[in-house]
Design goal:
alpha/beta
């Protein structure tokens, strides 16, 4: 039997698919009911986790204006994922909930207290998706004139993570004694100061919260550039990745595992999850017709250009739609902003390191799914591809997202009640939970 793999879901606290035939929450999911339904469906399908991404600014990267971002509803509006993660944890019993929190905007003490509290509220099912922010607008919302350069940003993020980890570990597992005889709640000798004296984040500690069920919530991180991969390899329990096909996926996974070993970690302690966006139908023709309809939506091109402009820090709307994209390194030259890995994925950089010669218009159409694999077909056909890719990559699992950034209950049902049962029948994913914590889910296989 093939080695089973892990499943996560990648989403955000933003508008659903509000202007389509199967629109569900009507574009106003702000009471959390839509996402609660999503979490319960994922738990029925025995997913490991749901990851809530975030953005902390209404970017004007696309065309120098906020109009395109707001018109398409891409990356704005976004509500705070932290309260939503508490709501989702309360609505489920097993599903892990990962919250995106930026090292640029959250001071280490505040962040450590928040994730520790969430971990206690969830009974040990919390994760922190570590991001450094890639948008000058986010930096300005943090009180900075602009983003630091990439190396400085990651150096600051490393210090931030080190301080957060020290704070989370400042309470020993046995610090709470509740000794009735001496009327002692916590033994002060088992609660330790941190006294982190780094240049950016001097923190005294200890943390004000008791040690949470996991001690340290699961750390997730996506790093596409060499600096980002090194950071992920040193810190992350779960590495979020996107690549162009199985060969590139294997290269990316092998690279981050090698970097982890060089950092003194056991590579088998990492789980590398690749982003995928299955398009499903009762027949392959039906699935391909559904993808074509999504690609033909009036806002499809604008949505993709706005999304990837914000992700990459490059105004894609200013480029010739009928010309090839310049090399990602040239587009990002001299810029502190943007994600080199995301831009390389968008440019369809191959194994030879060269970007595709397709015109930007075609790249945008292909990037609408933002999937590491071309998954279009029946549940059985898509399961075949996932099984083959997992075998070739030696991979740990997949992070499901939605084509063209448009989430509906209809799509959730297609995946959780169509695709997942096929994977379960093949022994490729779990059929029940056996662990109590998110870290336990990830360690299960």
């Amino acid at each position: 039997m093939a080695r089973p793999f892990h499943l996560g879901w990648f989403t955000h606290f933003g508008p659903d698919e509000w202007d389509a035939p199967f629109a569900s929450a009507g574009g106003s999911p702000w009471d959390g009911a839509f996402h609660t339904d999503l979490a319960r469906a994922l738990e029925r399908a025995c997913f490991d986790l749901v990851l809530l991404e975030d953005s902390l600014a209404v970017s004007s990267e696309a065309g120098g204006t906020r109009e395109l971002l707001l018109r398409t509803g891409v990356r704005a509006p976004r509500h705070d994922p932290a309260p939503l993660s508490a709501l989702l944890a309360a609505a489920t019993q097993h599903l892990g909930v990962v919250t995106t929190l930026s090292t640029l905007l959250y001071p280490p003490f505040l962040l450590a207290r928040l994730v520790s509290t969430l971990d206690s509220l969830s009974g040990g099912r919390t994760g922190w998706n570590i991001v450094t922010s890639t948008d000058d607008a986010e930096a300005r919302n943090a009180g900075l004139p602009a983003l630091p350069d990439r190396d400085e940003r990651y150096a600051a993020a490393q210090e931030h993570v080190d301080v957060v980890t020290a704070l989370l570990e400042s309470w020993d597992p046995d610090a709470v004694v509740m000794d009735r005889a001496t009327h002692t709640y916590a033994d002060h000798t088992r609660v330790h100061p941190v006294d982190a004296a780094g240049p950016r984040h001097p923190v005294a500690g200890p943390l004000t919260t008791v040690r949470s069920p996991q001690g340290r919530p699961v750390y997730c991180q996506a790093g596409g550039s060499p600096t980002g991969r090194a950071f992920a390899a040193r810190n992350a329990d779960v590495v979020l990745a996107v690549a162009n096909g199985p060969a590139a996926m294997k290269t990316a996974r092998d690279d981050v595992r090698q970097r982890a070993a060089e950092a003194g970690r056991d590579p088998d302690d990492l789980r590398v999850l690749f982003l995928v966006a299955p398009v499903l139908g009762e027949t392959e023709e039906e699935a391909r017709a559904a993808l074509a309809r999504s690609a033909a939506h009036p806002t499809a091109l604008a949505t993709t250009l706005a999304k990837f402009s914000a992700y990459t820090g490059v105004d894609l709307t200013a480029l010739d739609l009928d010309a090839p994209l310049p090399a990602p390194e040239l587009l990002l030259a001299g810029s502190a902003r943007g994600s080199l890995g995301t831009l390389a994925k968008f440019a369809q950089v191959g194994g030879d390191g060269r970007p595709s010669t397709k015109p930007l218009r075609e790249l945008a159409a292909d990037a609408g799914t933002n999937s590491s694999l071309d998954l279009v077909g029946t549940p059985e056909q898509v399961a075949d591809q996932l099984e083959a890719a997992a075998d070739e990559v030696g991979g740990d699992g997949f992070l499901v997202t939605t084509p063209y950034h448009r989430l509906s209950r209809h799509y959730v049902v297609q995946v959780t009640e169509g695709l997942v049962p096929v994977l379960q029948r093949r022994g490729l994913v779990r059929t029940r939970y056996t662990a109590a914590t998110l870290r336990g889910h990830l360690a299960e296989f």
